[in-house]
Design a protein that fits this description.
Blueprint: H1 16-23, H2 27-56, H3 61-67, H4 72-75, H5 96-115, H6 124-152, H7 156-188, H8 190-203, H9 206-210, E1 222-226, H10 233-263, H11 270-300, E2 305-309, H12 316-339, H13 342-352, H14 355-360, H15 364-369, H16 380-409, H17 411-424, H18 426-433, H19 437-446, H20 449-460, H21 471-502, H22 509-538, H23 540-566
Antiparallel strand pairs: 1-2
């Protein structure tokens, strides 16, 4: 008796959107949300809330721009990310990744508590030191968190969903450091605000306890692929020392400028610093190691070899150089070997995509609260409602929209759309700084003027110092501008995190993602002193027009990257089990 051949049955993978919904049941997703809170609280407290406090103390935009350099740790965290490439901790009682998260979250909470009693009006230097330490610990926390996020992801859907949850948690942290902080400051003062933020930081540690430890092989005897196998020792040593020297030189340039800004009279000009030393800093920290990695690949091939990491009798200096090479050049050489010329495009996209957000973020509170240089002179309660309540809702809505659209059409169309929206919404603030005639016309044309004015008028009355009969109209304009900007920002944030995650090799997650994420803030961070000086000389309107045109660079690069990826051969992926 014979049987008919049985046709092979291939299970069709469920739609991408359904797979994403199923992944939501995993505890990794709840941990991701809580850990994103732990990442967002110190960033909002140091970059946003602190600038509001400084503005109420009468600190000028140029000084705020210089002080914002303390957040340089976020832009240069890739410099020490190699130390966290492998999962290792001296006392890994929760597992190496989770123990590092816990070890960083506690001192961050302590520094935020100290900031509550720093009295920035009289001790601006002390504030700068505390803020710098908090930013450095927080940036290091981001390195470990990004490595954990990438290492525990099991599929592309996991990566995209965790990128969206990261943005949700970050924006909720912005709600705490924004809306709640400003309202509490209006009625109870800034000490209460920072004590609250420190307490929230302690509570967010629960995400570390909930998170699973990634299943990554580490330790002696672990096999590892490296590009240094077969490289002449002389070349390897020269390249490593050259890059290390470049990073040290760049750090000294920044440190010298920050110290001089608080000690010299008159202080150095931010514009000259950016124009004269900014290109050198970018070149030494980014372009030099990338060029070195490219040259080594061209000279010695693109195929890594496997080595076994274990105890060695080799002298300390050569062993250290080998370890530094593996930590710095292996991730860069892997990125270039996999992407080819596309690696340059990815680096440029990372440098420019969030420029308009990162450079403007330090001056949002001064623009809303101040009465100089074309600023709006709203009360803290106004800003709390418009920016940190209504605005956070719009950001979350934008992130949700981005996550949904990505799940249906993929990340590249969303990346391009996010770049367009992020650039265009700068024009809303430009119009606002000139009185808001364009926004008023939009309100009338859409017939939402009256209901929005009623709500805005009610919101304006929250402030004990509501300013005049036109307070409702002024609030309505502010809310429309913030709604547009935050919707675009949330949408673009999900897009760029998903994009950068997609190009990272999980074996080099700590260094590669830290490098790309740092680049998204680098130019914006370096540009803040220059922008602060420009605000004082030309006003906010000129700044918003400039950031609009600069945003066009990211639009063009996103389009080119979409075309590049569309031409790549399609790879079939099996559904995650």
């Amino acid at each position: 008796m014979t049987t008919a051949p049985v046709a092979a049955v291939t299970d069709k993978a469920p739609p991408r959107f359904i797979r994403a919904l199923k992944a939501m049941r995993d505890r990794r997703m709840a941990a991701m949300f809580l850990l994103a809170l732990a990442a967002g609280l110190p960033y909002g407290a140091v970059l946003g809330t602190l600038n509001a406090w400084l503005t109420t103390e009468g600190v000028t935009p140029s000084t705020i721009g210089v002080l914002s350099i303390v957040t340089i740790g976020y832009a240069f965290k890739f410099l020490w990310s190699p130390a966290f490439q492998t999962a290792h901790h001296p006392f890994p009682f929760l597992g190496p990744r989770r123990t590092w998260l816990f070890s960083l979250q506690l001192p961050i909470a302590g520094l935020l508590f100290l900031l509550a009693f720093s009295n920035p009006g009289e001790h601006i230097g002390l504030v700068a030191v505390i803020a710098l330490l908090a930013a450095l610990f927080s940036a290091t926390h981001d390195i470990v968190l990004d490595a954990w996020r990438i290492e525990v992801a099991r599929s592309d859907e996991d990566k995209d969903l965790m990128a969206a949850l990261y943005q949700f948690g970050y924006r909720i942290a912005g709600f705490v450091t924004g809306f709640l902080a400003l309202l509490l400051a209006e009625y109870f003062g800034w000490v209460v605000v920072y004590v609250m933020i420190a307490a929230m930081m302690v509570l967010s540690i629960s995400g570390t306890l909930l998170a699973p430890e990634p299943e990554v092989e580490t330790g002696p005897g672990t096999a590892r692929l490296t590009f240094q196998a077969g490289l002449p020792e002389r070349e390897r040593t020269f390249a490593t020392l050259l890059v290390a020297g470049g990073w040290i030189a760049a750090f000294l340039m920044i440190a010298n400028f920050v110290i001089a800004s608080f000690t010299q009279v008159p202080p150095p000009k931010g514009g000259l610093f950016v124009a004269e030393q900014g290109p050198w800093i970018v070149g030494l920290t980014v372009l030099l190691p990338a060029a070195g990695a490219l040259i080594l690949l061209m000279r010695h091939g693109r195929i890594p070899a496997e080595i076994v990491v274990g105890p060695s009798d080799e002298p300390a200096l050569p062993r250290t150089i080998r370890a530094v090479f593996r930590s710095i050049f292996d991730p860069l050489m892997d990125l270039i070997a996999r992407l080819g010329w596309g690696a340059l495009l990815v680096l440029l996209l990372a440098l420019t995509y969030r420029f308009t957000d990162s450079v403007w973020g330090s001056f949002a509170y001064p623009f809303y609260l101040d009465d100089r240089f074309g600023a709006l002179h709203h009360t803290m309660a106004d800003v709390a409602v418009a920016s940190k309540f209504f605005g956070v809702l719009m950001t979350v809505a934008g992130a949700a929209l981005g996550a949904v659209v990505i799940s249906f059409i993929g990340r590249m169309p969303v990346l391009v759309a996010g770049a367009v929206l992020a650039a265009a919404t700068n024009l809303l603030f430009a119009d606002l700084s000139r009185g808001g005639a364009g926004i008023d016309a939009f309100l009338e044309w859409t017939h939402i003027a009256e209901p929005l004015r009623l709500f805005a008028g009610w919101a304006a009355q929250i402030s004990p110092d509501a300013q005049g009969a036109d307070a409702g109209d002024r609030m309505a304009r502010l809310m429309i501008a913030i709604a547009g900007e935050n919707l675009a920002g949330g949408f673009a944030s999900v897009a760029v995190v998903a994009f950068l995650t997609s190009v990272v090799n999980p074996r080099f997650a700590a260094v590669q993602y830290a490098l790309l994420a740092s680049l998204t803030m680098l130019i914006g961070t370096l540009g803040r002193p220059w922008l602060g000086a420009m605000i004082e000389s030309q006003g906010y309107y000129a700044v918003f027009i400039l950031t609009f045109w600069l945003g066009g660079i990211a639009v063009a690069l996103s389009g080119i990257e979409w075309i590049r990826q569309a031409r790549l051969p399609k790879v079939e992926q099996a559904p995650a089990v």
